[in-house]
Amino acid sequence: MNKYDLVKLIAADAETSQAEAALILDSALNIIMDCVARGEKIQLLGFGSFENKRRSARVGRNPATKEAVAIPETNMPVFKPGKEFKDALNR
Predict the structure, then answer these.
(1) pLDDT tens for each residue of 58-87
(2) Which single residue of 20, 50, 55, 65 could bond 42 by disulfide (Cβ 3.0 to 4.6 Å)?
């Protein structure tokens, strides 16, 4: 499923136009990305939580040359599914 398919399903479920559904989805995704980028944790009960995890700097290896490569510190978005989400997958 892609974003267009999701917008169509949201529009049908909410009985609204696809344009409005796309606007709402875009707004929700932008808010989630902005909040997580600022270091806030977003919890949607039953669905899951989004947060920012810091990966510390480390040394890796180039598989072709076996040479050591410095990997810088980075921030990674993390999603943890909630109980209801997990249960829905295992029905």
Answers:
(1) 999 999 999 999 999 999 999 999 999 999
(2) 50
Average pLDDT taken over every residue of the chain? 95
For residue 62, the Cα-to-chain-centroid distance in whole angstroms is 29
**Cβ count within 10 A of residue 89:** 8
Write out pLDDT tens, residues 2-20: 999 999 999 999 999 999 9
Q: Are residues 1 and 24 in the same domain?
A: yes
- DSSP string for residues in 45-69: TTTEEEEEEEEPPEEEE-TTT--EE
What ranges in the chain are assigned the alpha helix state H? 3-14, 18-37, 83-89
What is the SS3 assignment for 71?
Answer: strand
- How many distinct structural domains can be found in the chain? 2
pTM here is: 0.80
Q: Are both 27 and 44 inside the same structural domain?
A: no
